[in-house]
Amino acid sequence: MKCPYCGCVESRVIDSRSTDEGGAIRRRRECTVCEKRFTTYEKVDETPVIVVKRDGSRQMFDRTKILNGLIYAGGKRKIPLEVFENLVDDLERELRSANNHEVSSDEVGQRVLAKLRDIDEVAYVRFASVYYKFRDIDDFRKALAEMP
Question: How is the cofactor bound, in the record's words (predicted)?
Fold first, then answer.
């Protein structure tokens, strides 16, 4: 690892610790030339998940967009933010473990809806109304009729 102070490529590790719930390793290093200390982080380089939108465009998976949609759908419901964060964590884990680097936005939406249905039915219908682009009350009635 190159020293940020003198540029030397020789350093020794003084301390290593797991961080980010095991997702990274923090290493405290000391340069063998100038003897100054610095910190480095080592983590797995994950392949991005690409979402193929309905119009054919491609975007990187953005957990913030999904989280914002869930917060909006769960507005004025007493659902802790942690519940939505866990839902998005599970979703992202599922998408990464599928070993498919591209996923359709429809599949992402279906997975979110399946998880949200178990959490809160009102938030589910609100999220579905945006996802399915409900036009009128009949669309809401159909969605409610299809719920178990």
Answer: Binds 1 zinc ion.
CA distance 65 to 87: 13
Is the pLDDT confidence value at 131 over 80? Answer: yes
Q: What share of the chain is helix, strand, coil (3-state, %, to 5)?
A: 45, 20, 30
Assess if residue 84 is contained within a domain: yes
Tokens coding 119: 């959490």
Structural domain containing residue 108: 50-146
Together in a domain, 117 and 133: yes
Establish if 127 belongs to a structural domain: yes
6-34 pLDDT per residue, tens = 999 999 999 999 987 777 899 999 999 99
- CA 139 from centroid of its chain's CA atoms: 30
> What does pTM read for this prediction?
0.68
Q: Are 5 and 33 in contact (CB under 8 A)?
A: no
How many structural domains is the chain composed of? 2
What H or E segment, with its residue span, contains residue 41?
strand 37-43
Residue 115's H or E segment, with its range, is helix 105-119
* 81 and 132 together in one domain: yes
Dump pLDDT digits (tens) for 66-107: 999 999 999 889 999 999 999 999 999 899 888 778 999 999
